Amino acid sequence: MGAIRTLALIGAVALATSGCALLPQSADLRAVAMPGQVEPIHAAAITRDLAVFWVSSNGCTDKSDLFPIVAHEGAASTITLRRIEQDVCETPIADGVEVIWSFEELGLTPGSRVSVNNPYQLPSTIPTT
């Protein structure tokens, strides 16, 4: 059954446009089936044309493991970052890793008003030996 779920997820991701899903303006995020799970983030920064996130990593996380969902409400947009692939490596990175999407990738106009819908999580302390 795991292979079927994996194929279904791959198909869903392949149908999304340029790494993001654009929801109708009035979409209720709770009512829309979304891939993966909401990813707690260490930090986020939104510039004129970039969305930058810092997320936890066990050593193998990269941009393709995460999926940004963009919801539009009037002139504002909200990004919810979701993890679609687990990081099963065993070399945690203390401060996490940085992942960046351009507004073009997200289907946003440069300078758009954007907020982030992910919970914040402090970086874990990795013991030194």
TrEMBL record:
Keywords: Signal. It comes from Brevundimonas staleyi. Residues 1-21 form the signal peptide. This is Lipoprotein. It comes from the Bacteria.
